Structure prediction request, 219 residues.
Amino acid sequence: MPKTLSFSFVLIAFAIGYLAYSILAISQELSKTRHQLPYFFDRMESLEKSIHIESWLELSKQLEKQVPQVLDEVTQVRKTITAVNNNLPDILAESKALREATVPQLLGEIKAIRVQTTPPVLEEIHMLRTDTIPSLLAEVHSVNKQIIHPVLSEITAVRKEAPLLIGRMEQLVADVESASAKASKGAVKGIITSPLSILEDSGEFIFSSAESLVGSKKN
Prediction:
Protein backbone atom coordinates (compact mmCIF):
# COMPACT_ATOMS: atom_id res chain seq x y z
CA MET A 1 0.00 0.00 0.00
CA PRO A 2 2.70 2.55 0.78
CA LYS A 3 4.38 1.66 -2.52
CA THR A 4 1.13 2.40 -4.38
CA LEU A 5 0.77 5.76 -2.66
CA SER A 6 4.35 6.68 -3.39
CA PHE A 7 3.86 5.78 -7.06
CA SER A 8 0.70 7.90 -7.15
CA PHE A 9 2.52 10.83 -5.59
CA VAL A 10 5.24 10.44 -8.18
CA LEU A 11 2.64 10.50 -10.99
CA ILE A 12 0.92 13.53 -9.46
CA ALA A 13 4.24 15.31 -9.11
CA PHE A 14 5.11 14.45 -12.70
CA ALA A 15 1.72 15.71 -13.88
CA ILE A 16 2.11 18.92 -11.91
CA GLY A 17 5.58 19.39 -13.32
CA TYR A 18 4.33 18.79 -16.89
CA LEU A 19 1.47 21.23 -16.28
CA ALA A 20 3.92 23.83 -15.05
CA TYR A 21 6.11 23.20 -18.08
CA SER A 22 3.10 23.55 -20.39
CA ILE A 23 2.03 26.80 -18.73
CA LEU A 24 5.56 28.13 -19.04
CA ALA A 25 5.71 27.16 -22.74
CA ILE A 26 2.33 28.80 -23.39
CA SER A 27 3.42 31.96 -21.64
CA GLN A 28 6.58 32.06 -23.74
CA GLU A 29 4.58 31.60 -26.95
CA LEU A 30 2.20 34.33 -25.87
CA SER A 31 5.14 36.60 -25.22
CA LYS A 32 6.54 35.89 -28.67
CA THR A 33 3.15 36.44 -30.22
CA ARG A 34 2.71 39.73 -28.34
CA HIS A 35 6.07 40.92 -29.67
CA GLN A 36 5.10 39.93 -33.22
CA LEU A 37 1.70 41.63 -33.14
CA PRO A 38 3.03 45.04 -34.42
CA TYR A 39 4.66 43.25 -37.34
CA PHE A 40 1.39 41.48 -38.13
CA PHE A 41 -0.51 44.78 -37.91
CA ASP A 42 1.98 46.45 -40.28
CA ARG A 43 1.68 43.57 -42.72
CA MET A 44 -2.11 43.75 -42.61
CA GLU A 45 -2.02 47.51 -43.20
CA SER A 46 0.36 47.19 -46.16
CA LEU A 47 -1.74 44.35 -47.53
CA GLU A 48 -4.86 46.49 -47.20
CA LYS A 49 -3.16 49.31 -49.09
CA SER A 50 -1.86 47.00 -51.81
CA ILE A 51 -5.20 45.38 -52.59
CA HIS A 52 -7.19 48.64 -52.21
CA ILE A 53 -9.81 47.27 -49.91
CA GLU A 54 -11.62 50.61 -49.82
CA SER A 55 -12.07 50.64 -53.59
CA TRP A 56 -13.33 47.07 -53.48
CA LEU A 57 -15.75 48.00 -50.74
CA GLU A 58 -16.92 50.99 -52.79
CA LEU A 59 -17.36 48.75 -55.82
CA SER A 60 -19.33 46.26 -53.78
CA LYS A 61 -21.57 49.08 -52.55
CA GLN A 62 -22.17 50.25 -56.12
CA LEU A 63 -22.93 46.72 -57.22
CA GLU A 64 -25.25 46.35 -54.30
CA LYS A 65 -27.07 49.51 -55.41
CA GLN A 66 -27.37 48.17 -58.98
CA VAL A 67 -28.68 44.79 -57.92
CA PRO A 68 -32.34 45.95 -57.85
CA GLN A 69 -32.02 47.40 -61.36
CA VAL A 70 -30.45 44.18 -62.60
CA LEU A 71 -33.23 42.20 -60.99
CA ASP A 72 -35.81 44.45 -62.69
CA GLU A 73 -34.12 43.94 -66.06
CA VAL A 74 -34.06 40.20 -65.50
CA THR A 75 -37.76 40.37 -64.71
CA GLN A 76 -38.41 42.31 -67.93
CA VAL A 77 -36.38 39.78 -69.92
CA ARG A 78 -38.36 36.95 -68.40
CA LYS A 79 -41.59 38.75 -69.31
CA THR A 80 -40.33 39.22 -72.88
CA ILE A 81 -39.40 35.55 -73.13
CA THR A 82 -42.84 34.64 -71.84
CA ALA A 83 -44.49 36.90 -74.44
CA VAL A 84 -42.36 35.34 -77.21
CA ASN A 85 -43.29 31.89 -76.01
CA ASN A 86 -46.95 32.90 -76.04
CA ASN A 87 -46.67 34.27 -79.59
CA LEU A 88 -44.61 31.35 -80.84
CA PRO A 89 -47.64 29.30 -81.98
CA ASP A 90 -48.87 32.23 -84.09
CA ILE A 91 -45.41 32.65 -85.60
CA LEU A 92 -45.24 28.95 -86.41
CA ALA A 93 -48.72 29.11 -87.96
CA GLU A 94 -47.68 32.07 -90.14
CA SER A 95 -44.55 30.22 -91.19
CA LYS A 96 -46.57 27.14 -92.06
CA ALA A 97 -49.06 29.19 -94.10
CA LEU A 98 -46.19 30.89 -95.91
CA ARG A 99 -44.56 27.56 -96.65
CA GLU A 100 -47.76 25.87 -97.81
CA ALA A 101 -49.47 28.70 -99.72
CA THR A 102 -47.19 31.57 -100.67
CA VAL A 103 -44.03 29.68 -101.60
CA PRO A 104 -45.79 27.29 -104.04
CA GLN A 105 -47.54 30.27 -105.65
CA LEU A 106 -44.22 32.06 -106.10
CA LEU A 107 -42.66 28.93 -107.56
CA GLY A 108 -45.62 28.64 -109.97
CA GLU A 109 -45.19 32.24 -111.11
CA ILE A 110 -41.46 31.74 -111.59
CA LYS A 111 -42.17 28.62 -113.65
CA ALA A 112 -44.73 30.50 -115.76
CA ILE A 113 -42.21 33.28 -116.40
CA ARG A 114 -39.58 30.72 -117.34
CA VAL A 115 -41.95 28.80 -119.66
CA GLN A 116 -44.06 31.61 -121.19
CA THR A 117 -42.00 34.79 -121.09
CA THR A 118 -38.39 33.71 -121.46
CA PRO A 119 -38.71 31.84 -124.82
CA PRO A 120 -40.38 34.80 -126.65
CA VAL A 121 -37.76 37.15 -125.26
CA LEU A 122 -34.98 34.85 -126.43
CA GLU A 123 -36.65 34.55 -129.84
CA GLU A 124 -36.93 38.33 -130.09
CA ILE A 125 -33.27 38.69 -129.19
CA HIS A 126 -32.39 36.09 -131.84
CA MET A 127 -34.40 38.02 -134.46
CA LEU A 128 -32.66 41.24 -133.50
CA ARG A 129 -29.29 39.55 -133.76
CA THR A 130 -29.98 37.79 -137.08
CA ASP A 131 -32.27 40.27 -138.91
CA THR A 132 -32.28 43.79 -137.48
CA ILE A 133 -28.65 44.24 -136.49
CA PRO A 134 -27.22 43.02 -139.85
CA SER A 135 -29.64 45.35 -141.69
CA LEU A 136 -28.52 48.26 -139.53
CA LEU A 137 -24.88 47.42 -140.14
CA ALA A 138 -25.49 47.22 -143.90
CA GLU A 139 -27.28 50.58 -143.83
CA VAL A 140 -24.43 52.13 -141.88
CA HIS A 141 -21.94 50.70 -144.35
CA SER A 142 -23.98 52.09 -147.27
CA VAL A 143 -24.18 55.54 -145.69
CA ASN A 144 -20.48 55.41 -144.97
CA LYS A 145 -19.68 54.46 -148.56
CA GLN A 146 -22.13 56.75 -150.40
CA ILE A 147 -22.11 59.91 -148.26
CA ILE A 148 -19.21 60.05 -145.84
CA HIS A 149 -16.50 59.07 -148.33
CA PRO A 150 -17.56 61.68 -150.97
CA VAL A 151 -17.81 64.35 -148.27
CA LEU A 152 -14.34 63.48 -147.04
CA SER A 153 -13.07 63.56 -150.63
CA GLU A 154 -14.56 67.01 -151.18
CA ILE A 155 -13.07 68.24 -147.91
CA THR A 156 -9.68 66.91 -148.98
CA ALA A 157 -9.97 68.64 -152.38
CA VAL A 158 -10.96 71.93 -150.74
CA ARG A 159 -8.02 71.62 -148.35
CA LYS A 160 -5.67 71.07 -151.30
CA GLU A 161 -7.06 74.05 -153.26
CA ALA A 162 -7.27 76.36 -150.25
CA PRO A 163 -3.61 77.50 -150.45
CA LEU A 164 -4.12 78.55 -154.11
CA LEU A 165 -7.23 80.54 -153.23
CA ILE A 166 -5.48 82.13 -150.27
CA GLY A 167 -2.52 83.07 -152.52
CA ARG A 168 -4.81 84.70 -155.08
CA MET A 169 -6.63 86.59 -152.31
CA GLU A 170 -3.34 87.80 -150.87
CA GLN A 171 -2.29 88.96 -154.33
CA LEU A 172 -5.64 90.74 -154.67
CA VAL A 173 -5.12 92.53 -151.36
CA ALA A 174 -1.59 93.52 -152.41
CA ASP A 175 -2.89 94.90 -155.72
CA VAL A 176 -5.62 96.87 -153.93
CA GLU A 177 -3.04 98.34 -151.59
CA SER A 178 -0.84 99.21 -154.59
CA ALA A 179 -3.84 100.82 -156.32
CA SER A 180 -4.51 102.92 -153.26
CA ALA A 181 -0.90 104.05 -153.22
CA LYS A 182 -0.92 104.95 -156.94
CA ALA A 183 -4.30 106.70 -156.72
CA SER A 184 -2.62 109.52 -154.89
CA LYS A 185 -0.38 110.05 -157.95
CA GLY A 186 -3.26 110.28 -160.44
CA ALA A 187 -3.09 106.81 -162.08
CA VAL A 188 -6.47 105.62 -160.78
CA LYS A 189 -8.05 104.36 -163.97
CA GLY A 190 -5.47 101.88 -165.08
CA ILE A 191 -4.96 100.56 -161.58
CA ILE A 192 -8.64 99.91 -160.81
CA THR A 193 -9.03 97.80 -163.95
CA SER A 194 -6.27 95.54 -162.69
CA PRO A 195 -8.10 94.40 -159.50
CA LEU A 196 -11.26 93.89 -161.51
CA SER A 197 -9.40 91.60 -163.88
CA ILE A 198 -7.95 89.76 -160.88
CA LEU A 199 -11.46 89.34 -159.42
CA GLU A 200 -12.64 88.02 -162.77
CA ASP A 201 -9.77 85.54 -162.89
CA SER A 202 -10.48 84.47 -159.28
CA GLY A 203 -14.17 83.97 -160.06
CA GLU A 204 -13.31 81.81 -163.05
CA PHE A 205 -10.90 79.78 -160.90
CA ILE A 206 -13.48 79.26 -158.14
CA PHE A 207 -16.21 78.25 -160.61
CA SER A 208 -13.85 75.84 -162.38
CA SER A 209 -12.92 74.27 -159.01
CA ALA A 210 -16.59 73.89 -158.06
CA GLU A 211 -17.39 72.25 -161.42
CA SER A 212 -14.50 69.83 -160.97
CA LEU A 213 -15.77 68.91 -157.47
CA VAL A 214 -19.30 68.33 -158.78
CA GLY A 215 -17.94 66.19 -161.59
CA SER A 216 -15.87 64.08 -159.20
CA LYS A 217 -18.94 63.61 -156.95
CA LYS A 218 -21.03 62.39 -159.90
CA ASN A 219 -18.31 59.95 -160.88
